[in-house]
Specification:
alpha/beta, L-arginine/glycine Amidinotransferase, Chain A, three-stranded mixed β-sheet, globular, binds N~2~-(3-carboxypropanoyl)-L-arginine
């Protein structure tokens, strides 16, 4: 274990608070968990409380934690653009009757997965020394394609100080960009200029490739990253259900934790990385110890790899990893005082997991200096008191059960709009 470093910069995780419309509609082709659980009843209350418990765990470990608010769902403004008019309830009733799939896409709580909110380049890496953030266009999946306007608005509210943080518009056109889920960074120590890596998918396999190489290049240009690496995800990983890179790899500080079959052209990629980051530890999990299938079913790599204030490193894993024997055996062999990762915490985010969203999907990492952190809108930072208040509100107002039929009921729409408004009001009160 290393001595406690003086942290000039630290990573703050911003999680999406899971909205009251969380449901299992099976909208994401290539996301095997979401397809498997399609049509099952969901429990939005349990989902949101599980997400909040994860945020509380981070707080208890001494880490910085912020949050995004749930977006308005059903998204009436978006439905109006398809020609539905009248009151919000009339818009929904007509859309549900005439275009039920479109209505379900307008109802999705998918903005909870904040790893897909944006790509963040920390200040030490960028040409102008500011943090650069680009909201993801999420152009590939219709139910996610209408997240970005509200995400952009929230990013502007959360990070209002342009001296520290530049916020861009999403990449236009049909060049898919899914944000930090396809972004990695290695740097040692964390506040030094790092190597930024974006991972794109090549289309042509059984499932859509959601991250385009064009978007990766555009983001690096806009962020002032001159020497970013753009690499291809392995077609085998995409075909096995890794619809984002963060399902098969995660990087933090000087560690790249990845499955053996995560990347298409691994040897030159690893060579370049080691040249540029000589102390890099590549913690690669061999396929003969953990198959791609087990890695994807358990979401081993969708864990949060974090450095605690005492300098030790911990992995925040979904409990499915403890329930998948080859994964558990690998963790038992690897995690401990002598390895690069000292502790494992298993958490229950099963409602999100059933839609293909693990611990790392639920958060957006923002590496900040103390000064930049002070400029963050405090209403979006979590402490125990706010966590208590959010928890009580969710426990009182989030639905406990949503079936596919409930999605079309006017009383559901009224209840979920009201629940969200209460939460937004609570957060805004905190600012007043
Ligand atoms: O985009 N699931 C999300 C899961 C996103 C996970 N994020 C990361 N890997 N970073 C998706 O596929 C399913 C919703 C539904 O089918 O109702 C969904 O959108």
């Amino acid at each position: 274990m290393t001595a406690a470093p003086l942290l000039a910069m630290r990573e703050v995780n911003f999680d999406g608070i899971i909205g009251p419309t969380h449901n299992f509609a099976g909208l994401s082709q290539g996301n095997l968990a979401a397809t498997l659980h399609a049509g099952e009843p969901s429990n939005p209350r349990r989902a949101a409380l599980q997400g909040l418990a994860k945020m509380r765990l981070m707080l208890s470990l001494g880490l910085g934690q912020g949050f995004f608010l749930p977006q308005v769902r059903p998204d009436v403004g978006w439905l109006r653009r398809f020609g539905f008019d009248g009151t919000p309830a009339q818009v929904c009733a007509r859309a549900w009757a005439e275009e039920p799939l479109l209505f379900v896409q307008a109802f999705s709580a998918s903005a909870m997965w904040a790893a897909n909110a944006a790509t963040v380049s920390p200040a030490p890496d960028t040409a102008d020394g500011r943090i650069h953030i680009t909201p993801a266009n999420l152009a590939t999946m219709t139910h996610r394609s209408h997240e970005w306007p509200e995400t952009l608005a929230q990013l502007r509210r959360i990070f209002p100080d342009e001296r520290y943080i530049a916020i861009h518009e999403p990449i236009p056109g049909r060049f898919g960009d899914e944000g930090a889920a396809n972004f990695m960074r290695v740097a040692d120590p964390i506040g030094d200029p790092g190597v930024e890596i974006m991972v794109y998918g090549e289309s042509g396999g059984p499932y859509p490739a959601r991250q385009s190489a064009e978007a990766c290049r555009a983001i690096f240009r806009n962020h002032g990253i001159e020497d970013g690496l753009i690499i291809q995800q392995s077609p085998a990983a995409l075909a096995a259900g890794a619809f984002h890179n963060d399902v098969v790899a995660v990087a933090h500080e000087s560690i790249l934790f990845a499955h053996e079959q995560a990347f298409a052209h691994k040897a030159p990629f690893y060579r370049t990385l080691i040249e540029r980051c000589p102390d890099l530890v590549i913690l690669e999990v061999p396929a003969n110890e953990v198959s791609l299938e087990d890695a994807i079913a358990s979401y081993l790599f969708n864990s949060q790899l974090v450095t605690l204030p005492d300098g030790s490193r911990a992995l925040i894993l979904p409990m499915e990893c403890a329930e998948t024997p080859p994964v558990k055996a690998w963790l038992d062999r690897t995690i401990g005082a002598n390895g690069p990762i000292h502790a494992a915490h298993f958490i229950d985010v099963r409602e999100s997991m059933h839609n293909g969203g693990g611990p790392a999907c639920l958060r957006l990492r923002v590496l900040m200096s103390a000064e930049a952190e002070r400029s963050v809108n405090p209403a979006h930072l979590l402490d125990e008191r706010t966590a208590d208040r959010l928890e009580a509100l969710i426990a009182a107002h989030w639905p406990e059960r949503l079936t596919p039929a409930d999605i079309g009921l006017p009383q559901t729409w009224e209840a979920v709009w009201e629940a969200r408004t209460r939460l937004v009001t609570l957060v805004e009160e905190d600012l007043a």
